[in-house]
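FORM 7B: Structural annotation worksheet

SECTION A. Query
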Amino acid sequence: MQKFEEVYEVVKLIPLGKVTSYGAIAKYLSTGARMVGWAMNSSHNLNIPAHRVVNFKGVLTGKNHFSNPFLMQELLEKEGHKVVNNQLINFKEVFWDPRLALE
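SECTION B. Predicted structure
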């Protein structure tokens, strides 16, 4: 699906140590956040950093789509993020907005 590929191209650009949200990607691509979520759910066999996409509050809502429900948090922590109760701490400080970064 073409839109999924567009989502994957944006996700590949998220810098190490940063995260973005489904909604931020959706706004950048002029599509819906649900479509971005569907793309992320289908991405786990691809070589993209899907763990860097969280919801608009920094919650790890996609964790159950990983092969292990703890893998998303583990990958984020390896990159230096702190996660408490499935939510990123300092989400606003590590947020990457594709609209600002890519336009």
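SECTION C. Observations
Residues 2-97 form a domain with the Arc Repressor Mutant, subunit A fold (CATH 1.10.10.10). The mean pLDDT is 93.

SECTION D. Sign-off
Analyst initials: ____
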